[in-house]
Amino acid sequence: GMVGALSIVRFRTAVKEAIDIVYMFWAIATGIAIGAGFYFIASVSCVGIGLIIYAMSKLTSNENAFVLVVTADGSAAQSEIEGAFKNKVKRSQFKAKSNHQGCSEYTYEVRLQKNNSSFTEELSKVAGVQAVSLVGFKTQNYL
Question: Which site among 28, 59, 67, 140 is 20 to 30 Å from 18 CA-CA?
Answer without folding.
Answer: 67
